[in-house]
Amino acid sequence: MNIKQRNARAKKVTNQKLALREKLWGQINESELWNRKVNDGYTTIPRTFPLIAQIMDNLSGKGTPVSNTYLTIWCRVFDESFIEIETPAILAMESGFSGQRAITTWNSRMSKLAQLGFIKPERGTLGDYQYVLVYNPYKIIQKYHEEDNISKQLYLALFKRAQEIGADDLSSE
User: How far apart are CA 158 and CA 56, in angstroms?
Assistant: First the structure.
């Protein structure tokens, strides 16, 4: 499918969804809805993120879920695939950690993400995680799948969903 065909298909699907939305909810004031093309402060996220998060949390082990920490990082990363962290306390809070151990817990989740290969941190003058490179999660998950470290059922769910949305990151097996 070429770009022109893809755009025509996307427009057709959008129009169908808008028509259905109008049938279900009537006329809606567009200013009351979130539109990534109009509103600032958004990020691109894989539509498969719920499955990616489950796989990450399964890999990290019981009692140490890492997906909220990863999502916090993802929401700050741009196309360069890295972030600079100047205030770990803010990222700890955004990741869901509070109290006296918030930063310690956040640091342990960052360490786990690095051990699992989803990120690569570099120490700076502000701490161990001042600079963080964010890898393509599909590629990391694919590696774990090839090593039989992910449940087949969960991997197949991710693979199927990725195919549905046109993501070919897992297709190079």
Answer: 12
Identify which of 126, 65, 130, 120 has the alpha carbon closest to the alpha carbon of residue 95: 65
Cβ(51)–Cβ(158) below 8 Å: yes
Per-residue pLDDT tens digits for 55-78: 999 999 999 999 999 999 999 998
CB count in 10 Å sphere of residue 123: 10
CB of 84 closer than 8 Å to CB of 130: yes
pTM as predicted: 0.86
Which residues sit opposite 122 in a β-bridge?
131
Q: Pick the closest to residue 96 from 123, 133, 119, 66 (CA basis).
A: 66
Q: Hey, what are 31's tokens?
A: 């200013």
Work out whether strand 82-84 and strand 127-134 pair parallel, antiparallel, or are unpaired.
antiparallel
The per-residue pLDDT for range 153-168, each reduced to its tens digit, is 999 999 999 999 989 8
Give the H/E segment covering residue 83: strand 82-84
Cα angle value 138/142/144 (rounded, 5°): 120
* Partners of 121 in beta bridges: 132
